[in-house]
Design goal:
alpha+beta, globular, Maleylpyruvate isomerase family mycothiol-dependent enzyme, DinB/YfiT-like, isomerase, SCP2_sterol-bd_dom_sf
Amino acid sequence: MIDHADDLASVQAATERLLHAIGTLDNAAVTQSSRLPGWTLGHVLTHLARNADALVNVLEGRPMYASAEARDADIEAGAARPLDEQLADVRDSAERFRAAAGVPADWSRTVALRNGVTDRAERVPFRRWIEVELHHVDLGIGYELEDLPADFTERETEFLAARFSGHPDVPATTLSAADGRTWTTGGGADGGPVTVEGTPADLLGWLAGRRDGGALTVKGGDLPKLPPL
């Protein structure tokens, strides 16, 4: 069962970890390459801030972004700002999200995200948690997939496995973590069943497009090629 209040607390804790880590950087770091192709650390930080504001829009019944072009332009426009501005923006936008999510509301209602995607309002805090945790890793400043909270890793693996379930390009696949947990995904493409085994961090990294799957063990076929998120 989803507990949006508990997820909001997790978002806050993840945000504090992120802010502390950003605070150890200097202005030169903002222009350095992140782990996301074509994006500097400044791009990632600006995206995190604008995503918080976009999720405020979602919670308050407005379009998540004015357009895909406006989203991209906002990220590009903010990417080169000095560190103190980036830090303040991430902090202030996170507070705006926390305030909007703290307003009494019908958390069972359906809300609209990007590209025609809808979800229950109660899942929005978890979606924000995903953004903060994975993009903290994307910064490449010492926070790795292995450092993610165990409950987050499990839930995000389950979330992504469900996202690819039945996908026409992914054969039937069983994910098997070293600690004994399993998930199923795919099933819409010919071939399989394939079993993919590895550590929780490596499985999540592969599902989330953060690792190439080279550390995983595959049985019953080749490692499936996952579509982009």
